[in-house]
Amino acid sequence: MTHLRNVVIILVLAVVAAGLYNTVSGHGIPWLPQEVKVEGSKPRLVLSSAAAAIDYIEVREAQAKFDQGIKFIDSRQAEEYRTGHVKGAVNIPATKDTEVIEAALGPQSRDEEIVIYCDGEECGASTMLAGKLQRLGFTKVYVFFGGWTAWNTAGLPTEKG
Amino acid sequence: MAGFFRSRPALIVSRLILGGIFIYASIDKIAHPDQFAEIVYNYKLMPGMAVNIMAIVLPWVELVAGLFLVLGIWVKDSAAILGALLLVFIGAISVNLARGLDFDCGCFSTAGGHERSAILLLLRDLVLLLPVVHLMWFAPKRRLA
């Protein structure tokens, strides 16, 4: 019985520490994910805390922004980007640290519109990167929900390399 | 042979290796909970609503049990917890290997990119079960191993 008691104590300690840290660390995530619905797509759970403040757009809006010459950021890993991406998109993997992201964006106005995408509806990299950009002060960040898959399916302009 | 396994130095080595590895593995996940949550999500093994709870708590279980092992407190119990985690990891990797799913390990790093093949991950977790078995079998009942 003491073994069971000790195991329970260790687990309770871990849960309490995790809860405290998640609350005070400043980069915690919500205990329950948020469901995001975008026209024409299945609802997707968004895990990071950024979801609430982000504008999600679908492929037609993304195309309109593309036609206006708004900057696209591909938040996938470099090897995925190389095999094909939205024409003119810049690759900034969502897992990079904020200093790297800031350097990659260059001297860009914080009020300029930015569209971020990843693989498709099932990926979370775009929301993650959008959250990081918001913390850097960018105010007009859009997540293109259908991402690379929807862009490709719609036959919109792409490039490799 | 049993005498060697029961010896204090052998038990200390097992404690430090197993505890140290789990402490190390917990740090990056604790630092990047959003990235770790995405990795857990991509294993596609639990209801979406439970993913964040797992991502918040799991690294702290690794850290606390790892610290207890390194410090020599409740050695058998801490080893049992880490052993149970290893079995869960082995199960999760096996299921996704069988499904042919593309997933990130998220074992030591949340930075993405595939760390190594799933077969090697399985082997590594199986090897890590050795110190678990050693400690659970031979560690003395009293609190200091």
How is this structure best described in words?
The complex is a heterodimer of chains A (161) and B (145). Chain A has six helices and nine strands. Chain A is α/β, with parallel strands linked by helices and 161 residues long. Chain A has a five-stranded parallel β-sheet. The mean pLDDT of chain A is 89. Chain B is mainly alpha-helical and 145 residues long. Chain A binds chain B through residues 3, 6-7, 10-11, 13-15, 17-19, 21-22, 27-33, 45, 47-50, 77, 79, 93-95, 123-125, 128, 131, and chain B through 30-35, 37-38, 41, 48-49, 51-53, 55-57, 59-61, 63-65, 68, 74, 76-78, 80-81, 110-113.
Write a concise keyword list for the protein shown above.
heterodimer; A: 161 residues; alpha/beta; Oxidized Rhodanese, domain 1; 2 domains; two-stranded antiparallel sheet; 6 helices; elongated; B: 145 residues; mainly alpha; 76% helix; globular
Helix and strand composition category of chain A: alpha/beta
The major β-sheet of chain B equals: none
Helix content of chain B: over 70%
Whole-number average pLDDT of chain B?
89
Cα radius of gyration of chain B in angstroms:
16 Å
Number of domains in the coordinates of chain B?
A: 1
Count of DSSP E strands of chain A?
A: 9
CATH fold type of the largest domain in chain A: Oxidized Rhodanese, domain 1
Query: Which strand-content bin applies to the residues of chain A?
Result: 15-25%
The name of the CATH superfamily of the largest domain in chain A reads Rhodanese-like domain
* CATH architecture assignment of the largest domain in chain A: 3-Layer(aba) Sandwich
> Total number of helical segments of chain B?
6
Question: In brief, what are we looking at here?
Answer:
Chain A has helices at 2-24, 59-67, 78-82, 98-105, 125-135, 147-153; strands at 34-36, 44-46, 55-57, 71-74, 85-86, 90-91, 113-117, 140-144, 158-159. Chain A has 161 residues and is α/β, with parallel strands linked by helices.
